[in-house]
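User: Predict the full complex structure for these chains.
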Amino acid sequence: METVASFYETPEPARFTGIRSWLFTLDHKRIGLMYLYAILFWFLLAVLLGGVLRLELMFPGETVLSPQLYNSAFTLHGVIMIFLFIIPALPAVFGNFFLPIHIGAEDVYFPKLNLLSWYLYMAGGAIAVFSLFSDGFADTGWTFYVPFSISTNTNVSTAVFAAFVLGFSSMLTGLNFITTVHKMRDRAMGWLQIPLFTWSLYATAWVQLLATPVVTITLVLVMIERFFNVGLFDPARGGDPILYQHLFWMYSHPAVYIMILPGMGVISEIIPVFARKSIFGYKALVGSSLAIAIAGSLVWAHHMYTSGMSDTAVFVFSLLTFVVAIPSAIKVFSWVATLYKGAIQMTPPLFFSLCFIYLFSVGGLTGLVLGAAGANIHVHDTHFVVAHFHFTMFGGTGFAFFAALHYWWPKMFGRMYDFKKAYIAAILVTGGFMFHYVPMFILGLQGMPRRYYDYLPQYATGNFFAGFGALFMIFGIGLMVANLLASLGRQRDAGPDPWGGVTLEWTIPSPPPVHNFVRPPEIMAYPYDFSGVTDRSAQSPKGE
Amino acid sequence: MEHASHIFSYKTLGLVLGTLLVLTGVTVGASYIDLGWINVWITLVIASAKASLVLVVFMHMKSAGKGVVVSFLSTVFFLAIMIGFIFWDVAFR
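Assistant: Here is the predicted structure of the two-chain assembly.
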């Protein structure tokens, strides 16, 4: 492959240099990397906050946090993880970087809007930090439930405004992706030739665009109620607190699919590459992405079984919740069937992907326990729920993020990382994860409520083990990030296609040139045709 | 000019603005009359009419391409389902 200058050496627009070439860039790849740096910062901060929370719970009684500080700390942990990490992580970083390349385009359809989305994201983060230093961070949990969020003296309004601004960033990114897929796709690429990661981003973008306005306007209503005493949600003023929960979860449950769908797309990219085998059930995977996006938007009230809503609603939403399990299961079956009789080559991205399948499956199946109204009554708002959503969100989206980092790192930076350290980090994170969250399932079934800074003596053992696991996990995450960053000191040695991939990003140099393609992209009739790869001499990725 | 046929006159825009303000007044007025469950539907119908006027006239949906119209109708359909599903709760409490 010919040598061409990468996007690092050729700013877009060309008139900007140095730091300004990043701050004013219109290049989707640079914007993706700016998201990566910001998101990693927030992620590591929220991980440390989570560590402090578990340290407090590791031993009975007050240890490192006061009750009030504990409430603010878990709210901040939740707000950062949800709004600043999990929701934007995969679409904003890898979607920005790879969606245009996957469809043979030079950039997204609205490059300036893309940069604005990043600035809104940064502004939202800055506002959240600002609220820390004015009247204390909100102590409501990331759900901002009324009527408490209306009556508490902590700075709910600023925290809510931060989420409001972040919502706009998410909507604009979704709008950009939908338009890009429709208008910028290579003319030779039909809908069923689009890679599955991009399909998942497309389905996610619709959810971002349709559901996010609901929560943004709901949060505005909370501010209106706080500032002007309008009786919207507070029953003391004639409002309806359950309506708030409907409106909040109308976005926030689909948001779960904003978080997980791109993760599923990542796994659908990685599994066939390292099984050296075409993905099993391409059309079923595409259909299941759309089905999850649609059905997942109609099950929000399964978060509200104990809220006092009608029994009819409990029945309907419980039934619908079980429907979502079907397309999710289709994906898991397709990944496993792809691995079956494949020429499997173990690498760090595949290792993380396999962990994802296991952890996400546990998260999904325990979700059915919570989706069943009868069982839900017993474990609602207990540590069982905490364990469940961390299995889906962290074991799912978080591990997909790690897998994506290790899969696309050589393409983004042109450098391969140390495999041995990556495996050690992955084992520490996964092992720590199990020690951390499995005890929470048991604690929840035993009746330990969530969001309490202290507990009864019978919960001490489980909490100690959970804290022990957290330490392993944090150490593993630190090692993983350090290993990836250490690779930046190496030569650009990854080559254009270190894994033997077949989607378009592997046909261009690493790192890519500013306009992505040196020559017009060749669109394959089927995006996961590995016949050309298996015909080549066996490739052994560097780094081992 | 290529888009000249898509631009509405000031008179039309003014009429639509007036209609929107009147409908807002009707919404406020209707809230003072207790008609039971019919109140919700009156409010929804008025809000839908107002949103349609904004989209067709101010946002030029009338002259938009097929893709935009289909996307818009899909969102309306989806929103209707979401609002409708709240009534599984509200109507059966």
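The mean pLDDT of chain A is 92.
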